[in-house]
Amino acid sequence: MQPGEFVSPVGPSGCGKSTLFNLVSGLLRPDDDRIEIDDVDVTGQSGHVGYMLQEDLLVPWRSVVDNVTLGAALTRGVTKADRAQAIDFARRYGLGDFLDHYPHALSGGMRQRIALMRTLATNHDLLLLDEPFGALDSQTRLEMQQ
Ligand SMILES: Nc1ncnc2c1ncn2[C@@H]1O[C@H](COP(=O)(O)OP(=O)(O)O)[C@@H](O)[C@H]1O
Ligand SMILES: [Mg+2]
């Protein structure tokens, strides 16, 4: 893949799109054959891609900002720069007034945008987005696609 390139797997429900992402992200291990990223064998290894799963899987006891910085919290500790980036994303994606809100008080579309921000905040070169805009109304979806 080239920088800035989008590849969109398309197919009917149940055909294996999410399973493909689970394999590439290392959550699942293929029975045979292997997964390579940039010619490196990453079969069954996580941590090589940012992955936004089909369900938002937000942590209910963490605020918007703390959900966006979850990746850093779990790996190396949250820095000031991580928090600043999270606040920047939240403003950019329409959640600037909800920084300290918790997921239960937010709509499905807002939750989905937080999940996207959390994936962007991993700062991985390769992002897997599983139906990332499915819970958004058509107007917000157009804005997010831009
Ligand atoms: N954990 C699992 N164990 C067994 N079968 C599964 C599991 N997850 C999904 N499947 C099956 O794999 C197929 C592909 O599922 P999935 O990748 O979620 O499809 P899609 O994302 O394209 O809708 C479906 O037939 C589904 O029932
Ligand atoms: Mg799916």
Q: Which term fits the overall shape? A: globular
Percentage of residues in strands? 5-15%
- Associated small molecules: adenosine-5'-diphosphate, magnesium ion
End-to-end Cα distance, whole Å, is 20 Å
The second-level CATH architecture of the largest domain is: 3-Layer(aba) Sandwich
Give the structural class: mainly alpha
User: At the first level of CATH, what is the class of the largest domain?
Assistant: Alpha Beta
For the residues shown, what is the average pLDDT? 94
Give the H and E element order.
Answer: HEEEHHHHEH
Description:
There is one protein chain. This protein is mainly alpha-helical and 146 residues long. It folds into two domains: 35 residues, no CATH class; 84 residues, P-loop containing nucleotide triphosphate hydrolases (Rossmann fold). 37% of the residues lie in helices and 7% in strands. It has six helices and four strands. It has a two-stranded antiparallel ribbon. A two-stranded parallel sheet has the order 3-4. Strand 1 and strand 2 form a beta hairpin. The radius of gyration is 16 Å and the shape is globular. The protein starts with 16 loop residues before the first helix and ends with a helix. The structure holds adenosine-5'-diphosphate and magnesium ion. Adenosine-5'-diphosphate (ADP) binds next to helix 1. The site of adenosine-5'-diphosphate has 8 residues, from helix 1.
